[in-house]
Amino acid sequence: MGQNFFEIEDVTFKASNINKVNNVTLKIKNEGDIICLLGPSGIGKTTILRTIAGLEKVNSGSISLKNKIISSKNIHVEPENRNISLSFQDNCLFPHYSVLQNIEFGASRNKKSKKLLNSREIIKFLHLDHIVDKFPHQISSGEAQRVSLARSLLSKPDLLLLDEPLSNVDQSFKEEIQVKLKKILTELKITTIIVTHDSYEAFYLGTKCGIILDGQLKQYDDPYNVYHFPNSVEVVNFLNRGILIPAKVTGENSLENEDLGTIKGNFIKHYPKGSNVKLLLQPEDLEHDDKSNLKLEVVDRKFRGTNFIYTLKTLSNLLIPVFVHSHHIHQHEVDEKFGIKRPIHIDHIVCF
Amino acid sequence: MISFVVAIPIVTVFSSFFETTSNYSYILKDTFLYDYIFNSILLLAGVLILTFLIGVGCAYIVSFYKFPAVNFFKWSLILSFAVPAYIYAYSLTAFFENYGTAFSILKGVFGEKDYNSLIPKFDGMIGAIISISFSLFGYVYVLTRASFHYQSQNLIDLGKNLGFSKKKSFFKIILPSARPAIVAGLSLVAMETLSDFGSVSFFGVSTLTTGIYNAWTSFDDLALANRLSFYLLIFILGLFILENLSRKKAQYHTPVKENIKSKPLVLLTGYKSFLAFSFCFFIFLISFLFPVLQMLYWTIIFPKHFMDLNIIKLLFNTILLVVLSSLVLIFLAFVSNYGSRVSKSKLLEILTTFSISGYAIPGVILAVAFISFISWFDNNIVSLLEIKTIKPIFIGSILGLVFVYFIRFYSLACNGIKSGYLKINYSIDESSYLLGYSKLKTFTNIHLPYLKNSVLLIGILISIEIIKELPITLIMRPFNFETFATTAYIYASQDLLEAAAAPSLFLIAIASFFILVTSRYILKD
Amino acid sequence: MKKVSLFITAFLALFIGFVGISKANEVNIFSARHYDSDIQLYQKFTEKTGIKVNVVSGKDKALQKRITEEGKDCVADLYITADAGRLGAFQAKGMFQRGASSKAIKAVVPKNFRTAYWTGIAKRARIIYYSPDRVSDSDLRGMSYEDLADPKWKGKVVIRKSNNVYNQSLVASLISNNGKKATAEWAKGVVANMARDSKGNDRAQILAVAAGEADLAVANTYYLALMLSGKKGPEQQAAAKKVKPFFPNQDNRGTHMNISGGGILKHAPNKANAIKLLEFLLTKEAQQHIVNNTFEYPMIDGVRPHKLVVQMGLDFKQDLKTKVSSYGRKQADALEVMLAAKWK
Fold it and tell me: Could you give the maximum distance between any two Cα atoms of chain A, in Å?
């Protein structure tokens, strides 16, 4: 055991044979770190949280919190004695208690410990003032999620587990709550593991992100690195942020693609000259230039408020996404030609 | 443990299956065995048909139509639960017998004449079918009504959309979609019918249940009793499976509460309204008013019997049994349900399912089997321990009585609590653990307050059953201990039906009171 | 957890409180005979002797089963029931002990109505009732139970079901006198003569004759008196007047008699008290109380039956030849012949 605050050592998480995540090793170094677990639904993220919380048992490996083993083949600390709080995705509010009673239900564990939070603050904080006297069946699912979150926060656990905490929260609130959540978790130094399928949420909230795919923890790294340096094709596909195009390594820092021509940049990994690779091309890698002689046909345009994402078709029928700021003076319609600035330069080249 | 206790009678029933048969069974085999089976089937068929027609008919009318006093009928039709079949049988006999109440009424209205041949005689098999049907149709009525209530308006609209006539809608849409509820109701009726003892023995109808009782008590012919029990159990098992199947299906049918639009009720006018009113009133009259009035009439014309009744003591005894038994039942039902919930063990769940079979065994057989078991246990096991004896503790004591009630009604309590628990999502428990609440604290802080209402409801349902319960109380009770039910029965068995009227009336009154308290819940769920 | 265990303890305490802990001066009765008048007698007994009387009443078979199963631990002292056959059968199972015929009892109860194990408390006769409108005296002259099978009564007889114990005792007495084979033939004849399938109790048979459904009914004596007394209401009083009693077999052995009686149970913890109670029930005072309330015949001499019973006639010949104690032994045969005759 090292000096890590929380550690999962070679644990296989299993709820059923389909829902299985093998041999996970994951460490949270500091108290107050926020970890986000990303992955497609049905992959077993929830099982991981349930196991950490002690609702499922562990058959191999060990889980330890504050240098104390809480789950292993032989040790199983009961969930109520772990001081780990889990906020379920389908909120589990106690139906016979009011919202306020539900929230305060969480506080009762920590009567003696220093009150870092009081319920009134947290209610205000999560915009729950208007519903405190209502009962769970009278509120919306987004509100219920916030109540559940409040209840978990108030219990001031050593480790907070959030399962899709904001999936039902209105879009308009979501960002605000994300900001507040991050602030409160950081201020209170509550170590948190968040399970989400929203990569933006994960990238924003997480000090680290774990990508779970095909029954494995594929990548566990800073959000920046996960995004920019995905360690496998699967991660790229999952994040769905760019495409992989065939290219040939032509030198120390150049590649050649038959449609786009020469692409320059720094390889993050060495490939011998002449080898055929798949290059990760992300929307922000290409720049628009009307004057360029590299013209591609527009097949689709998505307006995303602050930007457009054009989908361009190359001669060999590759579909390439390109990111353009929306204050760009003129717009390109579908079927028009779209110029790409050359030479193409990519900061760091990720190939597989 | 609980399951084991409940399994006692079943084990006893089968324990000596291959014992030699006495002379009685040879006589019996030739002549009466088929009679028993035939009578049981006939009784069952008659009761099922009648309860189906009455129960579904009433439920349909009060659920889909609006006519004078419909809201009154909605709950008053449940009052039939308060009248046990044997008291209904007393009333039926008293009213229709030669020179009975009907005769008096006709004489009073039309003058002296011989009306006896004009008055239909409801006795024997027909009397038993009528008595049982009118005291049990409530099961079908309540369940079917609930199903109609939650039936989606969309379905009915769909029928209209397809151009179905009202009749076609009823038979093609409304009835089939309520089928699980109807089947569930009918199988409850069937179980109660097969285990009925009071009214069939009063009418002298020999069914499997009375056959078992006779073989067991008068001829000590365990082997025969067991063989008959075996047939009965097969019957009941079939019903049990049917009921379980239908209940499973019924779950799929349960719609989300929020989605229920209140159905627009069809306002009946003219003769149709009168017909609907008459039908409901007729059923209410026959099922509840008739026995009550007959008993009231007797109490009034024979006030001496009423004066002789030690009402306070009977009331105290009845309430004592009710309170003790409901507390024990609910407490243990909680323990076992909570146990199987926490441990999530499949084995425990199967045992729980097994332990509810006590309900299917007729009370009279249960009581005799229990006595046999205790004496066997005492003779073979307790005597080894050189303790004096445990018999007086269990036989002829309140404890023993509560014990057998427990075996009989455990399924009622257990299923009631279980269905309450099904409504609590399991992750609610987990949330509570995760907030640092121990299992016991979760129970007291979450389960108990949440299940408060359903526990109350179950408690009252058990109470109604125990107030009406006869054979177990009769056989197991201690010295000088009478309840309203046993008093009524004993008078009736001495051909003193008029003296049985007052205790019967009190019994009905208490049961009605309980029903009225719960009718709000019964009608809702 | 504390609360739970407290709860359980309280419960157990409550139960144990209700477990009957037997007190010294008492007598425990299992009674299949339940008249309020009996209870009043027991109260009188307690007043006189200070012995407390505890009663469980119920169906006789269930009570017997309970006594048998509880065996030596059964706290009951006295088993009281109607019908000598039941008492005899229970005696045959070895469930009674000697003592029911104490000196005092022997002195008052005729030999025919007691054994060493049990004694009669009151008598009744099982007789024929007829409609004087439809049946003439000459039809009845010299009639016996045996004549109920006579084809001339085809479609005119009503009688209870074969499972009724009074019928079983009656048929048992016929078997004693005429043999099983002859009685089997007789049963077939009776079934052929029935006006309808057997149903209802004794009173219903009498009412059937009153209502014209049948001409002859077989029932116990006290039922008619009960109806005549008006305790069953004016209609039944009037109906009872349409029916006359007939005491059969006057030319030979006499009318079939039966008793209600009691015996001292084998493991009776309060045997002396039980004997005292039996003796008390056979005193003039108690007998008078019984006959006035139940319309039975007294067990002892010197007590006059209820006047309605007297009206029915007292000077009939009782069958004292056929011992009531023999009914029990023959009841199984009786049931067998009735069932064989398809007697419902």
Answer: 71
Q: List the single residue in B with minimal CA-CA distance to A152.
A: B435
Whether B435 and A106 lie within 8 Å, measured CB to CB? yes
Tell how many helices (H) and how many strands (E) occur in chain C.
15, 9
Answer whether A78 sits within 8 Å of B449, measured CB to CB: no
Tell me how close the Cα of C223 comes to any Cα of chain B, in angstroms: 9
Inform me whether the C-beta atom of residue B259 falls under 8 Å from chain C C-beta atoms: no
Nearest to B124 among C199, C233, C336 (CB): C199
Residue A291: what residue type? Answer: K
Chains A and C touch (3+ CB pairs under 8 A): no
What type of residue sits at position B308? D
B491 touches chain C (CB under 8 A): yes
Contact A216, A238 (CB under 8 A): no
Q: Which residue of chain A comes nearest to B448, CA vs CA?
A: A96
b/e burial code for range B400-410 (CB count within 10 A of at least 16 → b): bbbbbbbbbbb
C343, C160 Cβ separation under 8 angstroms: no
Q: What is the nearest CA distance from B429 to chain A, expressed in angstroms?
A: 9
In chain B, which residues have their Cβ closer than 8 Å to the Cβ of A82? 434
**B interface mutation test: which of C6, C14, C15 has the most B CBs within 10 A?**
C15
Q: What is the CATH number of the domain that holds B195?
A: 1.10.3720.10
**CA of C18: which chain B residue's CA is closest?**
B398
> Which residues, other chains included, contact B270 with Cβ-Cβ below 8 Å and sequence gap of 6+?
none
In this complex, the residue of B430, B439, B445 whose CB is nearest that of residue A55 is B430
Domain boundary among B235, B266, B301: B301
Q: How far apart (Å, rounded) are the C-alpha atoms in residues C339 and C331?
A: 12
Instruction: Indicate the SS3 state at residue B279.
Output: helix
ipTM rounded to 2 decimals = 0.82
From first to last of the 525 residues of chain B, give the pLDDT tens digit: 555 555 555 555 444 333 444 455 555 555 667 778 888 889 999 999 999 999 999 998 888 888 888 888 888 888 888 999 989 998 998 888 888 888 888 888 887 777 777 778 787 889 999 999 999 998 899 888 888 877 666 666 776 677 677 777 777 777 877 887 888 888 888 888 888 888 888 888 888 888 877 776 666 666 676 677 777 777 777 776 776 666 665 544 444 444 445 566 777 777 888 888 999 999 999 899 999 999 998 888 888 777 777 888 899 999 899 999 999 888 888 887 887 777 766 666 666 665 556 676 778 778 877 887 777 777 777 667 766 677 777 778 888 888 888 888 887 788 788 878 877 777 788 888 888 788 888 888 888 888 887 888 888 888 888 998 888 888 888 888 889 998 888 888 877 888 888 999 999 999 999 888 877 665 554
B434·A96 Cβ contact <8 A: no
Domains of chain A: 6-237 (3.40.50.300), 242-349 (2.40.50.140)
Span A53-105, pLDDT tens digits: 888 888 888 898 888 888 888 888 888 888 888 888 776 788 888 888 888 87
Q: Does C56 contact B103 at a Cβ distance shorter than 8 Å?
A: no
The dihedral sign for the CA sequence B270, B174, B153, B169: negative
How buried is B94 (Cβ within 10 angstroms: 0-12 exposed, 13-18 middle, 19+ buried)? buried
Q: Give the domain extent around B466.
A: 1-30+302-525
Question: How far apart are the CA of B515 and the nearest CA of chain C, in angstroms?
Answer: 27
Q: Domains of chain C (ranges plus CATH)? A: 25-123+257-305 (3.40.190.10), 124-256+319-340 (3.40.190.10)
CB contact under 8 A, B99 and C236: yes
For chain B, the residues whose C-beta falls within 8 A of a C-beta of chain A are 424-425, 427-428, 430-439, 445-446, 449-450
Which tokens is C339 given?
């069932």
